[in-house]
DNA sequence: AGGGCAAACTTGACACTGTAAAGATAACAC
DNA sequence: GTGTTATCTTTACAGTGTCAAGTTTGCCCT
């Protein structure tokens, strides 16, 4: 009918997986020149196709942006997951490693982070909803964070509170520390500041007064 | 020579303070249709001038964006200041009121917040640097926050740590709770969640034995 | 095998955008 | 009054997204 559900089994006709090529070209453009460099025509040129070809794989520019955001989100999740696996395996160490992965991804791929969290609702609606196996079990960034927060959720409380506490702190710092933004300083200085800021999480969950109201 | 430093005393030639009119037109467009609706030509049309007129008052679109960001920052600061003045005057109450003003501004003017914190370095360079009396004493948002954080800075530590802890938390939550984004729910639900998340600040600075409830 | 058929692209066009150069106009200095 | 300068207009051009029509290519079915 509408979508090519054959994306992974059969091979397309002319180009051979042009959809993925366009997404990758868009990511390249994004990393090179930031948001204003992302252009349907430039993506098409980079993939070696005509300027109107992307319109058949995505629902216009918004659809391409949504697809890029999905792929960026996938890489973002992977970045946090690997950061968690190589660090301190204790619950608190794992949580901090994930947050560090959050910051690291923002420092190294600012445009992709901007893409992930800057996509507007209307752009999301333009996404082709046929992304099977995308939000799989452990690969979702929010689920990774949620599981890392679980040990610090006081019994009987809404786990989303702790999750959003951690998420807001990491997200806010990462955005403020984006290159050329409000928190100045080199990478090492930013890292040290990040650790000191994240020390606030030592007071999260079952801490000082375990049996509070 | 270059700029009309007569912005407040004499009146310009044709239009009469077109610079301010263009900035206001841009803000209106931004609030109505979001970032993609902000256009030099639409601003010019809304101000009743030719489509190329803005180029003489701003350094291209980037300059207009920077000017709008400055004005938005001014209103943002005012929003936090008034929120601080009408709330609990205790140090902790004042700090939380400011954070609530942060969130409230983001909920009511999401495009302006995006403008303030989304302006790129190159766009900032395009700003006309002749904004006298702009970063005045108490009107700077960061100074407001800094002064509100001062009572919670442990002696001998860098005050920026507490400031960035508070700033990151408020900034992160506000962005995640932007309408149609990652934190769902109505305004009242968001407010309640915000209070619970911001409870993390009870552990900032001189902790565990607070004099206030 | 061969005819149809749909999907994957191409081509051409249009409206809209930012930007630059050159011309008109009005306020001001003298 | 005369000249000058800043303000704004006009005109033009390259680049953008999007639509409508055409062209090619692989696949399916009889």
Automatic annotation (TrEMBL), chains A, B:
Superkingdom classification of source? Bacteria
Q: Which InterPro entries does the UniProt entry name for this protein?
A: Homeodomain-like_sf, HTH-type_TetR-like_transc_reg, HTH_TetR, MT1864/Rv1816-like_C, Tet_transcr_reg_TetR-rel_C_sf
Which keywords belong to this entry? DNA-binding, Transcription, Transcription regulation
- Check the record and name the SUPFAM superfamilies matching this protein: Homeodomain-like (SSF46689), Tetracyclin repressor-like, C-terminal domain (SSF48498)
Give coiled-coil spans as residue ranges: none
Under Gene3D superfamilies, the record lists: Tetracycline Repressor, domain 2
What are the GO MF terms of this UniProt record?
Answer: DNA-binding transcription factor activity; transcription cis-regulatory region binding
Question: Locate the HTH tetR-type domain: which residues?
Answer: 16-76
Q: Where does this protein bind DNA? A: 39-58
Question: Which Pfam families is this protein grouped with?
Answer: TetR_C_33
Indicate what this protein is called per its UniProt record. Answer: Transcriptional regulator BetI
């Amino acid at each position: 009918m509408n979508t090519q559900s054959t994306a992974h089994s059969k091979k397309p006709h002319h180009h051979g997986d042009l959809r993925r090529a366009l997404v990758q070209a868009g990511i390249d453009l994004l990393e090179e020149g930031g948001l204003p460099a992302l252009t349907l025509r430039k993506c098409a040129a980079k993939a070696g196709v005509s300027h109107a070809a992307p319109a058949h794989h995505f629902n216009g520019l918004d659809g391409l942006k949504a697809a890029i955001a999905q792929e960026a989100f996938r890489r973002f999740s992977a970045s946090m997951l690997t950061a968690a696996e190589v660090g301190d395996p204790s619950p608190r160490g794992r949580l901090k490693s994930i947050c560090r992965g959050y910051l690291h991804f923002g420092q190294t791929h600012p445009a992709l982070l901007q893409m992930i969290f800057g996509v507007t609702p209307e752009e999301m609606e333009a996404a082709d909803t046929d992304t099977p196996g995308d939000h799989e079990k452990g690969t979702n960034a929010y689920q990774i964070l949620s599981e890392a927060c679980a040990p610090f959720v006081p019994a009987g409380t809404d786990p989303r509170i702790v999750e959003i506490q951690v998420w807001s702190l990491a997200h806010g710092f990462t955005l403020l520390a984006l290159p050329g933004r409000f928190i100045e300083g080199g990478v090492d200085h930013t890292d040290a500041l990040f650790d000191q800021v994240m020390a606030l999480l030592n007071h999260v969950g079952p801490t000082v007064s375990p049996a509070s109201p």
